[in-house]
């Protein structure tokens, strides 16, 4: 080792050669009109079901589908980095229209699908429900095709209702509160009602209360969370949990936590998305699987107004060099035939024709199907503020829920939220 | 040294409290990995259940899980090894030739939050067509591992008396010969510390792998999230997978613990 510099250079060379050698993705980088479609999907029953059918698609078209599958938040992080960098690595993207759709579309990351959806009469864009369609349309441009829809329904325990002398689930929110209080009194240690309590997580499930009281998060660009209707809705949601909920309830519960309380048989009522029902009816997960009943979301002063939203949709990355093939995949995955098969496997579709087909729901509990249909009537197409910075907005409008649960003045808190939210909307 | 009984009791209680606090989550994780999803939430019967290895069977039956273990191991090993090869001589020269400004530049890399580098990295590496390969993961992990190794080793070399090397040179070794034959063998505790910490960092790293890996090079921390679905969470599987991730690194840490401790303190007191 007489020449230290020489040694260093040799080392650097060896290292870089080695690194170059293990950069093992030769060839797949070039995607212009490639036969490989890169599809990014979320961990979801929909994904598990479609994956089984993909070999058939590959055989019919001669294309290859390459799937990346991630959890919803990881998926979101990855999109934000990759789309920001103008990546060509994504062709088809499974995304959440209400959570990320507006941001992605505003940034020009979503390809315009307007002509494509209208070009194929057999595939039939008009068969899709209006609410979900509006959520995947940005300023008159279609940017996504809804694949899964969900509504809020009432989960209840048949045995506890019977024990307290009720033979039917509540029709209105006031009845719900009355029954929940009585059941809690009749069964020490069991809560009458449970729902999400965490500030941001609760917002979507609170939205149906808000709509059923005649309110909304914003009206024509003006914040509306301080209105009388909104205050009454905040008060109903938070007092249900404060008065009829579990003792010492945490204000940090998302769906897994409130669902767990219901699964353990520690609550009589739960208002949640219908898409989660298997968590309650699967004996592997739920102690009360035998006794779970479903009812449409209870009526408020403004009637029954549950959200009816597309929780997931498929879109195409604007930077993709393979848009034609990407569309072929979307067209296939959202066809009547696949939508029917997917709904039978537990993924509520956005297609009217599928819902009208009795075959589509034959595997689901009958009362759940009725509950979903009931909640879908007069359904509202959003369940959170429609803005680009959704997470931040949810923190603002969710605060009165937490304040109400902890016994603070709801009206005052709603007023504070109103001001903060107006400021937020002005800065959007 | 004689200690009063009061002090001894305090000591035992303090240690017990610490152990409970530190081990409780791990204990809970292992316990939950032996239960099904109903039992996990049944707090009243936390210890009263029939243990089952079903979750482990599910995890290991997913054939790709073995691939993820290999990916994690390979990336952690390579990034640590290359960082050592580059970082140890660098640390030595910074320590012996007092290159404080260079040292500061290296430290900068530790100060910049990794998340702010993700977008530029992704942009650069995707244009180089490297995204999804092992090389990009190794490089990104080296970005953290290298400064770590340089800093630990600098402190270590500072603590080694220079007289030893001078003596070796008097006996006819070149400066590099003295480094290789005298200084390095004396630095094994420091090397072990640096290597283990770097390996652990890489093994646990989630953020870089999330964006820069693809389906074939996914590492374990990213793969764990496969158990969390949109409308269903397989807690038992998640806990079993977490145990599988934690176990190897715990064994390595336990085995190498004495090196870590002596390595961390070795640079603290100048000899």
UniProtKB/TrEMBL annotation, chain A:
Signal peptide (UniProt feature, chain positions): 1-20
Keywords assigned by UniProt, alphabetized: Signal, Sugar transport, Transport
Ranges annotated as biased composition (Polar residues): 345-358
Keyword GTP-binding on entry: no
SUPFAM superfamilies in the cross-refs: Periplasmic binding protein-like II
Alphabetized InterPro entries for the sequence: Bact_solute-bd_prot1, SBP
Coiled coil, from the record: none
CDD domains per the UniProt record, alphabetical: PBP2_TMBP_like (cd13585)
Region (Disordered): 345-365
Protein name: Multiple sugar transport system substrate-binding protein
Lineage: Bacteria, Bacillati, Actinomycetota, Actinomycetes, Propionibacteriales
From TrEMBL, chain B:
Gene Ontology cellular-component annotations: plasma membrane
Stored Gene3D superfamilies: MetI-like (1.10.3720.10)
Transmembrane segments: 12-31, 68-92, 104-124, 136-157, 178-203, 235-256
Subcellular localization: Cell membrane
InterPro entries in UniProt: BP-dep_ABC_trans_perm, MetI-like, MetI-like_sf
Membrane topology according to the record: Multi-pass membrane protein
Keyword Chaperone in annotation: no
Main location: membrane
GO BP, one annotated term: transmembrane transport
Keywords from the named record: Cell membrane, Membrane, Sugar transport, Transmembrane, Transmembrane helix, Transport
Start and end residues of each ABC transmembrane type-1 domain: 69-256
Family under the similarity heading: Belongs to the binding-protein-dependent transport system permease family.
UniProt protein name: Multiple sugar transport system permease protein
Organism: Tessaracoccus oleiagri
